[in-house]
Write a structure and sequence with these properties.
The complex is a heterodimer of chains A (663) and B (486).
Chain A lengths: L21 E7 L3 H15 L4 E7 L5 H11 L4 E5 L8 H12 L4 E4 L11 H10 L4 E5 L6 E2 L5 H17 L15 E4 L16 H7 L5 E5 L1 E2 L11 H19 L5 H27 L6 H24 L7 H28 L5 H24 L8 H23 L1 H8 L9 H16 L13 H21 L9 H17 L1 H6 L5 H4 L11 E6 L2 E6 H17 L6 H22 L4 H18 L18 H19 L12
Parallel strand pairs in A: 1-2, 1-4, 2-3, 5-8, 6-9
Antiparallel strand pairs in A: 4-7, 5-7, 10-11
Helix pairs in contact in A: 1-2, 5-7, 8-9, 9-10, 10-11, 12-16, 12-22, 14-19, 14-21, 15-16, 15-22, 16-22, 19-20, 19-21, 20-21
Chain B lengths: L2 H17 L8 H20 L1 H31 L4 E2 L3 H6 L8 E7 L6 H9 L8 E8 L3 H10 L5 E6 L7 H11 L4 E4 L5 E2 L3 H12 L3 E10 L6 H23 L11 E4 H6 L10 H11 L3 E11 L5 H22 L3 H43 L3 H5 L2 H29 L5 H5 L1 H21 L32
Parallel strand pairs in B: 1-9, 2-3, 2-5, 3-4, 7-9
Antiparallel strand pairs in B: 5-8, 6-9, 7-8
Helix pairs in contact in B: 2-3, 3-9, 3-13, 3-15, 9-15, 11-12, 11-13, 12-13, 12-17, 13-17
The chains are: A alpha/beta (663), B alpha/beta (486).
Chain lengths: 663, 486
């Protein structure tokens, strides 16, 4: 019945060998006689180090058979990648590229198979790369100790040296530290190479690797070019001519997608300039021949220009980054459409309040928006998503989702929003919410990340059931609230909805962690009469009014934040700061006629500042491989949107919108 | 016996077992009955909606009141006289080693490499000669870590590892059944990997079972917690266990009713257990089910005054997972044993049927209904919806009001009594805060009901080791997700 013999428990690990720490890539072509001595010498040079020798063979003779024999003799140490006729793209360079793709070790040494590259130098390359933390190490024939013995004839020596100098002339900065860019003997970190980017064209591959993969940290080791042992040489005048063409192509390629900030900004500006031309052209075409109304035409023309800009920037200026094409485009579109109103707003602000002439204001706005566009595009559209730092990603996701929850609550409770918006500058009905909401946001953000002692036990069903309860309570409160005017009922309804959203979007555990953030807004239920307890201060001839209830609320918020972080002892100091700020703000309002809301705003900033400081997320130790729990968001999101829309529609007919009066 | 006969009896035995297995949640007649009932209910509620609501409210109120009254009765009878089986230390030690029978200890464990070392220590502390002990560690074959940890910490020949071959369902009762086949002992018991049993427990069980005679096939030892003071949840949990094992189960014994067994530390006579078909591998509270089946077979179960300490679940979500599994199992057991009510009545009598309905079915249902009733109460005070005056018709309204005021007070009072029996006056505050614990129970009840419908045989694994200060991350591959909400 049951199997109790321990033999079944032995898991087979025997077939696995240690992964190699170096891959030696050897491109070969019709040089069968060199294989065995090369394998022996390389093996001897590296000693006990686990290596693999990868022959990338373009031969038509018996070389593959010889390599296979060697592979059978040393399984796991010798591999063969034979490229049959017709698949030998890129010649020698193509062979090396194929070898780089197939290499399994973190370091790859590339050397010729003809023993002119002494195998004993290979470990030196590796050692130099490790000690200098370089991305690539070049074995140079022209360093002090290295000598060119093997190149027979002065003509070939000149060709070789001259092509090297030519390459350095083309790429003075990148090849600054490289004296022998034509070397076929080098070591490179596997993760610094993107074989897909390489366009090998027969000639030595090193230049291609350094330039196209933008390898910056290069070091050199000198060696003496050995006597060719067997096989035919591959350096020829024809190769030299191809080289010149190749060099030009490389130089042009580096102009695209520049590495430096300045180069990128230039590319960006140029793309923008062409975009303007495209915009005008499209506007003319849509407005003129197509007879569209000019505003619609302008809108469409802007979209065409954005499309053009994206095509230019994506193909020519920015490196692809970590996002896929679709998300890149979506973000670019969103960003640029958002920036147009920003541009107009800035223009308006400069003219209206800055007193600038509209042309000068426009130039200033263009510069500002350009800077903003550049920064956001490079960080958000083409930035690296922190793939390794899962935790940060999770935290960001959590914050985004929390923000979503709050936004959805605003949709679900439009009454709260309209009451909040109306008369905000005159300290209207929603003014008691300002400070608690600021404190809540600071608290919630500070506690978005789990502490490392938190058990990783989660349950989606519990999430669902709890959210169901919260959503039910929110709906009941929304429906039972007598009239939407006082915010008394609406605040708990919104909080209930936010709780449901947090539970659904972040999980019960995260929601429980942030539970303190729910307390401050409840304070707003106490009284909606903002002027209660107002105190008139007379100090040194200055008369000022202090809203006492707001100060009291701020103190309670501080207390909650302190309790949440177990930092109650720090609260008195914060209260003193709060008092000073209140007093200063009161005098400011009196003296300079600042809007009365200023006091509440400043109090909110102080409270949020302390709450954020006390509840700073703790720094976590090294990340574990386990995935931090985030519930599946799609279902949660759909549910919340549906409920929000229904609740919003229920409250909407009762509302009248009061536009906020700007001071 | 001819081959045909053997086949037939084998098939008959299988069929008999399948009849009382939770392999299917509802038997065919039950399913048709339920569908027919729902159809009738739907039709009537369209025709006379108010009547249906009134009837449902009346039924719920009466059942709820009955369940509370039953609890009070159990506590009352358990307080009159001693119904636990006491075996003194001297009596337990007096049995010479040579007279002791071979005792099999089954320890099922799954993905618990961190507690295996401690387990060996706890089992070594048992005051029972190694030569007479037959400890079987039941491990699952995809759990290499625990197997490795167990192999490294095995202390002697009396402990063996039994790797349960992979087959569905992968549940604790299935592992125990596999272990029972290999058991050599005259008696057999089960401990969980994190249990700390009273060292004299096996000797006490031997003495008690010999003293009580062959009617008694099983003894349930008392369970307690070693981490009572970790947080509020563990304190509530400890109080609840004290009520359960010191009041409610002895009360059931006193009323000669079937006793739903607890998950560990139940001591059986091996032969009778085998004859009974052992545990139902499809039931997620196989122990409670076994308790009812023992009663149906005419055997008696005693409660042994000897404590096994377990780890109280200290984490909210972990607790809800564990509790919902128990509730789901209770509901399953209830449904399984209501499959042929006439048989059940013949075998259990009215007392057993009462226990089955009010205790086994009533516990999870009351937890579930609690939330609904509280929500109704809050709604009433919040908005006074006029419909409620029509739904709660006078006699049942007063029963409901009685439950609300006296029922809640009584249940809190029972918890306060447990503070007394535990002799832990510091837990008084915890006892008074029990409504918070009921909310958790309601959540678990809702989850159990949900799972009963959609995932009846899913065994919700409880994470152990959360009492350890460093809170080790449960290693190994993540557990299969329960299901998406929705």
């Amino acid at each position: 019945m049951a199997d109790i013999s321990p033999s079944s428990l032995e898991t087979a690990h025997a077939g696995m060998t240690a992964p190699p720490s170096v891959t030696v890539v050897v491109p070969t072509r019709n040089e069968a006689d060199n294989v065995v001595p090369l394998v022996d010498q390389v093996g001897a040079a590296f000693g006990d180090l686990p290596i693999e020798i990868l022959f990338v063979d373009d031969s038509d003779d018996e070389t593959p058979a010889t390599v296979r024999a060697a592979a059978e003799r040393l399984p796991g140490r010798v591999r063969l990648l034979h490229r049959p006729p017709g698949e030998r793209d890129g010649g020698l360079g193509g062979a090396v590229t194929a070898g780089l793709s197939a290499a399994r070790a973190p370091w790859v040494v590339v050397m010729d198979g003809d023993l002119q590259h002494p195998p004993r130098t290979a470990p030196e390359l590796l050692a130099a790369g490790r000690s200098a933390t370089a991305q690539a190490v070049v074995a140079s024939r022209y360093r002090a100790r290295g000598r060119v013995d093997g190149l027979d004839g002065w003509w070939r020596r000149i060709v070789s040296r001259g092509s090297g100098l030519l390459a350095k002339a083309f790429f003075p900065r990148r090849l600054r530290a490289v004296s022998d860019p034509m070397s076929g003997f080098f070591a490179v970190r596997r993760d610094a190479v993107r074989p897909g980017d390489l366009r090998p064209d027969g000639y030595k591959i090193l230049l291609e690797v350094l330039v196209r993969n933008r390898i910056d940290r290069v070091t050199e080791v000198s060696y003496t070019f050995g006597q060719r042992a067997a096989g035919e040489s591959k350096t020829s005048v024809r190769e030299g001519l191809r080289f010149a063409r190749h060099l030009t192509a490389l130089r042009l390629a580096t102009l695209l997608r520049p590495h430096s900030t300045l180069g990128r900004m230039t590319g960006f500006a140029m793309a923008g300039a062409t975009g303007t031309a495209v915009n005008s052209l499209a506007l003319w075409a849509l407005g003129g021949p197509a007879h569209l109304p000019y505003l619609l035409a302008a809108l469409l023309a802007v979209q065409v220009a954005i499309l053009w800009n994206f095509a230019v920037i994506d193909r020519l200026v920015m490196p692809p980054g970590d996002h896929r094409f679709g998300p890149r485009f979506g973000r670019f579109l969103l960003l640029n459409n958002t920036l147009t109103p920003v541009h107009l707003g800035l223009l308006y602000a400069f003219v209206r309040w800055g007193g600038l002439h509209y042309l000068g204001a426009n130039v200033l706005a263009i510069v500002l928006v350009f800077a903003l566009r550049y920064l956001v595009t490079s960080a958000w559209v083409y930035g690296a998503s922190p793939a390794g730092e899962l935790n940060r990603m999770v935290r960001r996701t959590a914050q985004t989702r929390l923000l979503l929850a709050v936004l959805l609550a605003a949709v679900a409770c439009p009454a709260l929003l309209t009451i909040g918006w109306g008369e905000i500058w005159e300290r209207g009905h929603a003014v008691p919410l300002i400070i608690p909401v600021a404190a809540s946001v600071a608290l919630a953000l500070g506690r978005a990340r789990p502490s490392h002692g938190e058990p990783d036990v989660h349950d989606r069903q519990v999430d669902g059931l709890l959210a169901f309860g919260f959503l039910g309570s929110a709906a009941a409160l929304m429906l039972l609230a007598p009239t939407p005017t006082p915010i008394t009922w609406l605040v708990p309804a919104a909080l209930s909805y936010v709780s449901a959203a947090a539970v659904l979007l972040l999980g019960t555990r995260a929601a429980a962690r942030m539970r303190f953030a729910l307390l401050p807004p409840l304070l707003a239920m106490v009284s909606t009469d903002a002027t209660a307890f107002s105190t008139t201060l007379r100090v040194a001839g200055v008369v000022a009014t202090v809203p006492g209830l707001a100060v009291a609320g701020a103190v309670v918020c501080l207390l909650i934040a302190g309790v949440a972080a177990s930092r109650v002892r720090a609260v008195p100091l914060a209260v003193v700061v709060l008092a000073v700020v209140t007093f200063a703000a009161a005098i400011l309002t009196y003296r300079f006629g600042a809007p009365p809301i200023l006091i509440d705003g400043l109090l909110a900033v102080v409270v949020a500042g302390f709450a954020a400081r006390w509840n700073r997320p703790e720094t976590l130790p090294a990340l574990s491989a386990r995935k931090r729990y985030l519930p599946r968001g799609r279902f949660a999101f759909t549910t919340l949107v549906a409920v929000a829309v229904v609740l919003g529609l229920l409250a909407y007919p009762h509302l009248t919108w009061h536009a906020a009066v700007l001071g | 016996m001819t081959i045909n006969q053997a086949l037939r009896t084998g098939a008959a035995a299988n069929e008999l077992r399948a009849r009382y297995s939770a392999h299917v949640t509802l038997s065919k007649p039950q399913r048709y009955g339920l569908i027919a009932g729902l159809v009738v209910l739907a039709v009537v509620s369209v025709l006379r909606p108010l009547f249906v609501l009134q009837a449902v409210v009346a039924l719920v109120t009466v059942c709820y009141g009955a369940a509370i009254a039953f609890r009070v009765l159990l506590v009352y009878v358990s307080g009159k006289g001693e119904h636990r089986i006491q075996v003194s230390d001297e009596d337990a030690r007096a049995v010479p080693d040579d007279d002791l029978p071979t005792y099999t200890v089954l320890v099922p464990a799954y993905r618990e490499p961190s507690v295996i070392g401690a387990l060996m220590g706890n089992l070594d502390a048992l005051a029972y000669p190694h030569g007479k002990l037959d400890i079987i560690l039941l491990l699952e074959d995809d759990d290499a870590e625990t197997i490795a940890a167990a192999e490294a910490s095995i202390t002697g020949d009396h402990v063996r590892i039994l790797v349960v071959p992979e087959s569905l369902p992968r549940t604790k009762p299935k592992a125990c059944n596999v272990g029972l086949v290999q058991a050599r002992g005259e008696f057999v018991t089960i401990y969980d990997a994190e249990d700390i049993p009273d060292p004299l427990q096996l000797r006490r069980a031997v003495v008690a079972l010999r003293r009580l005679g062959h009617d008694y096939v099983c003894l349930q030892a008392e369970l307690g917690y070693f981490n009572t003071d970790q947080n509020r949840i563990t304190r509530w949990f400890a109080l609840e266990y004290a009520t359960w094992f010191r009041s409610l189960l002895p009360g059931l014994v006193a009323l000669r009713m079937p006793v739903p067994l607890g998950g560990t530390s139940n001591h059986f006579r091996t032969r009778e257990l085998r004859d009974l078909g052992a545990w139902d591998p499809y039931n997620v509270t196989e122990d409670a089910d076994l308790g009812i089946r023992l009663a149906r077979a005419g055997f008696k179960v005693g409660v042994l005054a000897s404590v096994t300490l377990e780890e109280a679940n200290s984490d909210f979500i972990n607790w809800v997972k564990q509790r919902s599994r128990w509730y789901k199992g209770y509901l399953m057991t209830w449904l399984v044993h209501l499959r042929s009510p006439r048989n059940t009545y013949r075998q259990l009598g009215w007392r057993g049927l009462l226990c089955l309905n009010l205790f086994v079915g009533g516990t999870p249902l009351a937890a579930l209904l609690n939330a609904v009733l509280w929500a109704t109460t809050v709604l009433w005070f919040l908005a006074h919806p006029p419909i409620m005056q029509e739904v709660f018709i006078p006699p049942f309204y007063y029963v409901g009001l009685f439950c609300l005021i006296f029922g809640n007070a009584t249940v809190i009072y029972l918890n306060v009594l447990s503070v007394r029996t535990m002799d832990r006056p510091d837990l008084l505050g915890t006892a008074l805060l029990s409504p918070g614990y009921w909310a958790m129970m309601s959540l678990a009840g809702a989850k159990a009901a949900w799972q009963l419908v959609f995932k009846p045989s899913y065994w919700e694994k409880t994470t152990h080791g959360l009492h350890l200060p460093t809170a080790p991350q449960p290693s190994g591959p993540p557990l299969p997700e329960v299901s998406d909400v929705g």
